[in-house]
Design brief:
Elements lengths: L4 E7 L5 H17 L4 E6 L7 H10 L4 E6 L6 H15 L6 E4 L7 H24 L1
Parallel strand pairs: 1-2, 1-3, 3-4
C-alpha cells in the first residue's frame, strides 16, 4: 500500500495577522501545484494553527507520513532544533505516522531569482511613483 504523505509547512508565527497569512498562502499555492493532497500550515508560536494542530489536521486527513518543511531561510535553531522537537512532541500520539524533515529554503538558486524579481518590482514601483509626482 502506498504511503499517503501530508506536507506541513511551518513558520515562526507573528502577532500580526497579515504576516501569518503568508504561510497559509504558500501552503495553498503548494497544494494547487504539487502532488501533495494534504498540505497544512502551522506556526511555531504566537498564532494558530499551532504545530500540534497542523500535525493533527494532516493525520485527520489520512496522512500516514508527514513531511515537515520549515518556512525559514537558514539552518538556525528554529529549523534545526525547535521545529523537529515540537513536531516529534506532536507526533507522540501517532506512533504509526512517519515524520521526515526537509531543509530550510535557502540558499537555493531560485532564492537569488526571487530577490532579483523583487528588486525589479521595487524599481517598477519607484518609476511609477516618480512619474506621478
Amino acid at each position: 500500500m502506498a504511503e499517503k504523505t501530508g506536507l506541513l509547512i511551518i513558520d515562526h508565527g507573528s502577532r500580526r495577522p497579515d504576516a501569518n497569512r503568508v504561510v497559509r498562502q504558500v501552503a495553498e499555492m503548494v497544494r494547487e501545484t504539487s502532488r501533495f493532497l494534504i498540505v497544512q500550515h502551522a506556526h511555531m508560536e504566537l498564532a494558530e494553527p499551532t504545530i500540534q494542530q497542523g500535525f493533527e489536521t494532516c493525520v485527520a486527513a489520512g496522512a500516514d507520513a508527514v513531511l515537515v518543511q520549515p518556512y525559514f531561510l537558514g539552518p538556525g535553531r528554529h529549523s534545526t532544533s525547535d521545529i523537529p522537537r515540537m513536531v516529534r512532541e506532536a507526533a507522540r500520539n501517532h506512533p504509526r505516522v512517519t515524520v521526515r524533515f526537509s531543509a530550510p529554503l535557502g540558499p537555493h538558486p531560485k532564492m537569488g531569482e526571487l530577490i532579483l524579481e523583487r528588486i525589479r518590482e521595487a524599481e517598477i514601483l519607484r518609476h511609477s511613483t516618480d512619474a506621478e509626482t
